[in-house]
Amino acid sequence: MPEPSNITLAVTGASGSIYAAEILRALADDDRVAKINFVASDSALRVFAEELNLSGRNDLAEKLLGSSCPKLQQHAETDIGANIASGSYPTDAMIILPCSMGTLASIANGLAQNLIHRAADVCLKENRPLILCIRETPFNRIHIRNMQLASDAGATIFPAIPTLYNHPQSTQEMARNFIHRVLAHIGLPQPNAYQWQPD
């Protein structure tokens, strides 16, 4: 049986707070996940307030989950001395959901200006999975170039695009199916995930 996973989840200032809430709940409920390092940028806090009516940084993860989670550690984006800023800290994967174009640009060009950028840079240099769930449309040439740079460096570009073939009945169901696909990509398939059956 595989060892429990140590996952970093970062949320940045792009629309899509519902994705962040759903993936945090899934990670908290998954017995294969031993530790969640959670970082929300200042811009993400603004989006949480706008989209989910959640305000403030204090106890943000608990507000999203509805209760405390002993395996979760929340970090400020300014804390460059946090555990996930070091390559010696054993992170199994990092997911940025949603990932803003500004965050993508910083990661693609090696500009570790905050903890999210630095933790992502660590994943790239240590050859660990880094999933960038970008959220923007349309893309300009700078966005496309930065996606190419990040992909060439080892990141997976995983756009936050919902599926429709499963006939979702709510935005929550759309978000949940998307995060199931993200988690399956890092080796954490969910037992209730939808699977396409053409027949």
Short key terms for the protein model shown above:
single chain, about 200 residues, alpha/beta, 6-stranded parallel β-sheet, 7 helices, globular, 4-hydroxy-3-polyprenylbenzoate decarboxylase, EC 4.1.1.98, lyase
Written account of the structure:
- There is one protein chain.
- With 199 residues, the chain is an alpha/beta fold.
- Helix content is 39%, strand content 17%.
- Strands 3-2-1-4-5-6 form a six-stranded parallel β-sheet, sandwiched between helices.
- The mean pLDDT is 94.
- Keywords: Lyase.
- Its EC number is 4.1.1.98.
- This is 4-hydroxy-3-polyprenylbenzoate decarboxylase.
Strands in their spatial order, largest beta sheet: 3-2-1-4-5-6
Q: Biggest sheet, in brief?
A: 6 strands, parallel
C-alpha termini separation: 33 Å
**Quaternary form:** single chain
Instruction: Output the helix-strand order.
Output: EHEHHEEHHEHEH
What percentage of residues falls in helices of 4 or more residues? Answer: 25-40%
* Count of individual beta strands: 6
What general outline do the C-alpha atoms trace?
globular
SS class: alpha/beta
Unreliable spans: none
Rounded to an integer in angstroms, the radius of gyration calculated over CA atoms is: 16 Å
In round numbers, the mean pLDDT is: 94
Q: Specify the number of helices.
A: 7
Strand content: 15-25%
